[in-house]
Amino acid sequence: MAAVSASYELRFDAGRVCLDLVATVNGRFGDEPVERLDTPHRLGQWLVGARLLLPDVPLDAVDGQWLDHFHTLRDLLFRVVYGEFDGRAADTDVERVNALAAAAPPALRAVRDADGSLVRAHAAAPTCEALLAQVARDAVDLLTDATARDQLRRCEGESCALIYLDTSRGRRRRWCSSEVCGNRERVARHRRRAVAARA
């Protein structure tokens, strides 16, 4: 089912850039998934928020083709990450991720800022292929790191099934975001208690 477009806040709380990309569709397992990357401009905002593009890079090159390519990668990563999490082999999809990761990611260099401190700058304008490679490499790193894989969790939120990296002390984190899914759960629990008290 196609995702419903809506301008919801972009979130970066899954712990890895590849998981944050997968999280740009909310409610995949419900009746109407919500698309957060619904325009090239939103994709540009996501690329800056994910720190794949530096804030001063013009986003003119981010167009509908970029959006299509990132949607394709996102769907591929969804199948691979959820398949691996659930113990299902997805070797054909893994090979597609490997192929995307083989491209060279954007090169960065250190340059002097106006105040004399060193800051990061792109060596050249990043291409769509290079940025896709950076996200795909993050997925390869995640899926081949036994420690990171052991930290993968599925959100316990009532209407959420996002996979996130649990780096909390004791590995007891229950939600992809305490502020979003955690608050919803606390509000729902409060309402259930209030209804029970009235009954």
Spatial order of strands in the largest sheet: 1-3-2
- CATH architecture type: Orthogonal Bundle
What is the count of DSSP helices, taking H or I runs of 4+ residues?
Answer: 7
- Strand elements, count: 7
- In the CATH scheme, the class would be Mainly Alpha
- Stretches where pLDDT is under 50 for at least 5 consecutive residues are none
What percent of residues are in strands?
5-15%
Radius of gyration: 19 Å
Largest sheet: 3 strands, mixed
Mean pLDDT: 86
State the domain count: 1
Distance between the termini: 40 Å
Task: Please identify which CATH superfamily we are dealing with.
Answer: Jann2411-like domain
Fill in the CATH topology: Jann2411-like fold
Judging from the principal axes of the Cα atoms, what is the shape?
globular
Structural class of the secondary structure composition? Answer: mainly alpha
Strand/helix succession:
EHEEHHHEEHHEEH
Helix content: 40-55%
